[in-house]
Every structure is written in C-alpha cells, then in structure tokens.
Amino acid sequence: MSLSLVSYQFIICLLSLKKLNSMNALDSDYAELQEQVMANFQKPILPNVNVPEKIIICLDVCYDDQNSLFRLGDGTTYTPINMLKRVLEFFIHSKHAINKKTEFSLIAMQDDSACFVQNFTHNLKDILNAIDYVNAEESKSETFDFQKIFQIIKQEVEIPQFKQSECIIRPPYVVRMIVLYARSNCIPVIAQEDSYFNYLKKQVYFYIDILLAHEEDCALYKCAEVYDSLQDLDDGYSYVFEVSKNAAKIHDSIAKLLAHPLQRPLQKNTDYAFPSKF
Question: Are strands 206-213 and 174-181 parallel, antiparallel or unpaired?
Fold first, then answer.
C-alpha cells in the first residue's frame, strides 16, 4: 500500500464527513456515517473485482431431532440435511452462473469428526453428487472441535499471499469457507490459541461465512450458546446468519452469501431494502 494511496483515501473520507456535517445532518446520522467510513478505512485496500473463488463448503450432517422439519409454503417438508442440500444446490448453480471459474470443495462435519469428501472442482455434477452422497447422523456429542476442519484446510488448501506492495494487483483467486451448522445442543469449540486458526485469521484472501440452522424452541436447546461460539470464527469480515426451521429465511440467507468477498461491504453496513423511486 503506497503512502499516496492511503493519503488519498483518507482525504476522501474526511471530505465526505465534512460535506455531511455542512448539510446539517442529524448527529446520529453523522456518527453512523463516521463509524462506517472509519470501519471501511481500516480494511486493507484490495482490488474490488470478481476474481474466481475457491469455496470450502463445511456441511453439518448431524441433527438433534429427526422429526424437526422445514416446511415450504405448499406443505412440502424437508429434514434439516435435505434442506441444507436444497439451498446448497441453489447456491452452487447461482455462483457458477456468476463466475464459471468458481470451484467448490466439501467437508462433512460428522458427530465427532470431519471428513474431506470432495476436493476443489468447478464441475457442478461432481460437487452436487458429493453433497448428495453424505448421509444424516444423529448428534450425540456435546461439543464439536473445529480444529479438525482447520487441519484439513492446512493440508489441502493453498491460500494466495497478500503483499502490501502489490495490494492493487488482483489475486488469482480468494478462498472462502462457508459453515452450515445444524446442531442446537452441540457447542462448537474454536480454540483461539490454535496456531493454524490464528494463521487463517491473518490471511487477507481467506474468508469465513456462517449459516446456523437451529431448532425452533431454543428454551429446550442451547441455540444461544451455539451461536455465540460460532461467532469466534468471525474475524470482523464474516457474514453470519441464523435461522430456525424457516424455509423462506434459510433461502434468503444463502442468497445473501452469493456476494463476492472482495465486492461486499461489512455485514453491519449492508442494506437489502429496495430504494423507493419517489
């Protein structure tokens, strides 16, 4: 990152804030804009381009209650694993339509282990067959250690290195891990002292997104504890969604994950409302 580029961006930020202030904006609006500008200013300056993605799908195959179902508007019901497979099929076809160089791999999160099912491929038939191949398992363990996943990534995935002197040069690809977690009584364990997890968090071209599909009656489960633990995966640039057995909301959430990591704002700054023409 050159000094002139940093100075230019900082000047633009200050001018934007000064302009807003001169327009007699409300103090709350000014403070909110200032927070957004400074949050984005702290982000590394990266090329805002749709480079190919290597997406690691971490699919939780475990369930808490086999009778807990997703229900569509027409009355069709899906088990948790089949609903996750359904939304993944939509996601994969959509990402492929956006950029046919997108590659997908699959890690199955089993009861007390993780299995690398499919290596990176841009062949839709291969990845969809791999997803269809995995079977549901009853959740029996009280915790799931994400170190198992980090070890697989360490062995199988090469992440492009970020060089500050070449910050405006596009990387050949970025790597994104999308966690689809379906358990409500099994607490994820993300050890902050894990050396490889710390390494991953420092990689500018590595992203982690999370979709938690939990049981509806959280009073009977540990939904809040599961959600809070998954937050430990977030390095500040993740997109995190949680849904209960709501078929519409889980489709809406997976659609929001279609955004490219290099082209999307921080999640707290997103606005999915359609602007009025009037």
Answer: parallel
Mean pLDDT computed over 199-203: 91
Task: With CA atoms as reference, report the closest residue to 175 among 105, 71, 246, 266.
Answer: 105
Query: In whole angstroms, how large is the CA radius of gyration of the chain?
Result: 20
Using a CB cutoff of 8 Å and minimum separation of 24, what contacts does 87-90 make?
Answer: 87/250, 87/251, 87/254, 88/57, 88/59, 88/131, 88/180, 88/254, 89/128, 89/131, 90/251, 90/254, 90/255
Q: Does 179 have pLDDT greater than 60?
A: yes
- 3-state helix, strand, coil split of the chain in percent (to 5) is 40, 20, 40
More confident call, 2 vs 148 = 148
State the pLDDT at residue 73: 86
- Contact predicate 137/79, CB 8 Å: no
Q: Tens digit of pLDDT for each residue in 223-258?
A: 999 999 999 999 889 999 999 999 999 999 999 999
Q: Which residues contact 36 (CB under 8 A, 6 or more apart)?
A: 266, 269
Residues in the chain: 278
Burial class (CB in 10 A: 0-12, 13-18, 19+), 267: middle
Res. 87: pLDDT tops 90: yes
Largest CA distance in the chain: 60
C-alpha 145/C-alpha 179 separation (Å) is 13
From the CB of residue 11, how many other CB atoms can be counted at a distance below 10 Å?
10
Query: What are the residues whose beta carbons fall under 8 Å from the beta carbon of 11, sequence distance 6 or more?
Result: none
Strand runs labelled E in the chain: 53-60, 62-63, 70-71, 77-78, 103-109, 114-121, 137-138, 143-145, 174-181, 187-189, 206-213, 240-243
Mean pLDDT of the 58-66 span: 95
